[in-house]
Design goal:
The N and C termini lie far apart (about 155 Å). This protein is mainly alpha-helical. Helices cover about 95% and strands about 0% of the residues.
Amino acid sequence: MNRRLGLLISLIVIFTAVTVYAAEGGEHSSGGLKYWAYQFINFAILVILLFKFLAKPIKNYLAQRRELIEKSIKDSQEAKELAQKALQEVEEKLKLKDQEVQDILNSAKAIGEQEKLQLIQESEKMKEKIMEQAKTNIEFEVKMAKDALRLEAAELAIQLSEQKLKEKITPEEQERLLQESIKIIEGRN
């Protein structure tokens, strides 16, 4: 193809030179019939040669160029469609991710609220247990204190009784009470 193109360019240069030479020719006739006939024949030969040598390569070149452009357009359209699909997929994934994030946040909030309520309930139960334990401890301490007071009151009463008895009882009365106590003890056995 390059060979034909080189040949064609050479022929164009030759015929152009011939045409220019003929136009400037030795005779400066202002347009005789012969002159115009040579001009027409030269031009016709040039057109025929150009058509013969260049028609097929130009046709092939233009066909290849058209195919290349069509292929480029088709590839571009396919790439555009793929890019749009990819964009839609990414947007859908982003929407799904946004929804997943929102679901996770809602779930975390719900779990947090449940744990909060559970902690409040557990703290209320613990508070009740502590209050019951404190009440039990207070009751026990009060009972112990009452028992201690009774015991102390009893001891004081005994001491007071002994003291009063010692002051009122004579040695003879003591002997008589002792004998009566012995008889009561012997009677039980």
